[in-house]
Design goal:
Blueprint: H1 4-20, H2 22-48, H3 50-57, H4 61-89, H5 92-110, H6 116-130, H7 133-144, H8 151-186, H9 190-212, H10 231-240, H11 242-274, H12 278-310, H13 319-336, H14 340-368, H15 374-404, H16 410-435
Helix pairs in contact: 2-5, 2-7, 2-8, 2-9, 4-6, 4-15, 5-6, 5-9, 7-15, 8-9, 8-12, 8-14, 10-11, 11-12, 11-14, 11-15, 11-16, 12-14, 13-14, 13-16, 15-16
């Protein structure tokens, strides 16, 4: 009969073996990061194609705002929560592979949408597939790396978000240029060809992930308890810690009300007010925004790590205060500028600050929540981001702008007003997050 000491020794050996596969672990993080690149290109390409898509399908700004926002929020918010449950309780390789195939196929099929409703349905398919990626990644990183080594792989992955949220415009511009050459051969319009081009690589990457990714067995303390933790238990856990987890999980979504609206509509502002082509607008935003996003991501990871060392209870969260105070004013000041270059440079400054929210929230989920609930708690966070950022932000900017001006500058005024109206809410919720933080969990 095995002794308790033998069991502990076996578990310890298993833990050591788990952390020893650093090459496979980093390969898997790199593959997930590449998938994140493709997901952001597929997600944001419609912002560059807004004008030709609207003209081809006969859509107005409100309908485009719904496609750019609600088309994601509709299923990203609800479906993502259930997918997070599957990530925590089912085979993560299968769940992630199905999600990748779904969003890639939906992107390709979007090229052949003929009405607003068919495009909305397909954009919802893109959202549902992409909703699986972040919960899967946070869950896998926690099983591939020891607790003190998780900051860098999380920063690497989230830096892709900072990089490609804007870099996707440059990649999209390149795809549009390629589509301009291929479109006459294929016999379909440039915007349709572009959607096919950006959707195809995801099908290949889905196969690569299914065959080569390292997906370790769940070896959390207490055994494979994730499968026994119900969704009701997760929601009850959040309710019991609502004073801390409520503000923490809401914070990034509130910031995204204006930040995602600006990311979504900035190309259109440059096209309408400065008469740029879609490709040129994408390249300009990419040149300024990519270094700002990547630099900010690793900067905040470094700052958060140092502050956590000095203050284990709240240090990880304190950098959010600086970002909350400065991000919205920076965005608003840039949009008030008359020069296109000044608009984009100020946008880069705001993006540098805003990356703090995107990085620190998943790090906090890993530090402050149970291993058996991580994916689902991340999904709750993304539900809030989807509803507030994708769903509310782009549409609110259009509606507020229509109230302020009937001219081409109305959209820009709406973005400025939305930033300033949301700013005090971000500050208050940030302060509540830091003040109510409890001790990080031993994991």
């Amino acid at each position: 009969m095995p002794q308790i000491g033998d069991s502990i020794g076996a578990n310890s050996a298993a833990e050591t073996a788990r952390w020893a596969t650093s090459r496979q672990s980093w390969y898997t993080v790199a593959l997930l990061s590449l998938l994140y690149v493709m997901s952001l290109i597929d997600r944001n390409i419609l912002a560059l194609l807004a004008q030709p898509v609207a003209q081809s399908l006969g859509l107005d700004d409100r309908q485009m705002a719904l496609l750019l926002g609600l088309g994601f929020a509709l299923l990203y918010a609800i479906g993502g929560l259930f997918l997070g449950h599957f990530v925590d309780t089912r085979n993560r390789r299968i769940v992630a592979t199905v999600g990748i195939l779904l969003w890639s196929a939906a992107t390709i099929l979007s090229a052949f949408a003929t009405t607003f409703w068919s495009m909305l349905l397909l954009r919802s398919g893109v959202a549902l597939g992409e909703a699986v990626l972040m919960p899967t990644t946070i869950s896998l990183i926690a099983d591939l790396f020891p607790p003190k080594a998780r900051g860098l792989p999380v920063a690497m992955f989230t830096s892709v978000g900072s990089f490609m949220t804007i870099g996707s415009y440059a990649a999209g511009a390149a795809a549009i240029d390629l589509a301009s050459t291929a479109s006459p051969i294929l016999g379909i319009s440039v915007w349709q060809t572009t959607l096919v081009i950006v959707g195809l690589p995801g099908l290949v990457l889905a196969l690569l992930f299914a065959i080569t990714a390292t997906v370790p067995q769940r070896l959390h303390k207490g055994g494979d308890a994730a499968s026994t933790v119900s969704m009701t238990a997760v929601l009850s856990h959040i309710k019991n810690r609502i004073r801390f987890l409520g503000p923490l999980l809401s914070l990034t979504g509130i910031n995204c009300i204006y930040s995602l609206a600006i990311v979504t509509w900035l190309p259109t502002v440059l096209i309408r007010e400065h008469h740029m082509t879609a490709a040129n607008a994408g390249y300009l935003i990419g040149v300024i925004g990519v270094p700002a996003g990547v630099g900010g991501n690793f900067f905040w990871q470094w700052v958060a790590g140092r502050m956590q060392h000095r203050d284990p209870a709240r240090g990880l969260l304190r950098p959010l205060v600086v970002a909350a105070l400065l991000t919205a004013p920076c965005y608003a000041a840039g949009l008030l500028a008359h020069s296109a270059n000044m608009k984009v440079m100020a946008f880069g400054c705001g993006l540098f600050l805003s990356t703090a929210f995107n990085l620190i929230t998943p790090l906090a989920v890993q530090s402050y929540t149970s291993p058996h609930m991580r994916a689902r708690i991340v999904s709750v966070n993304f539900l809030i981001i989807a509803v507030l950022g994708f769903g509310l932000g782009p549409l609110a900017a259009v509606e507020i702008g229509a109230l302020l001006s009937s001219g081409v500058e109305g959209l820009r005024y709406g973005l400025i007003a939305l930033s300033l109206l949301t700013w005090p809410v971000v500050v208050v919720v940030t302060l509540a997050t830091v003040r109510n933080a409890d001790a990080p969990m031993e994991q």
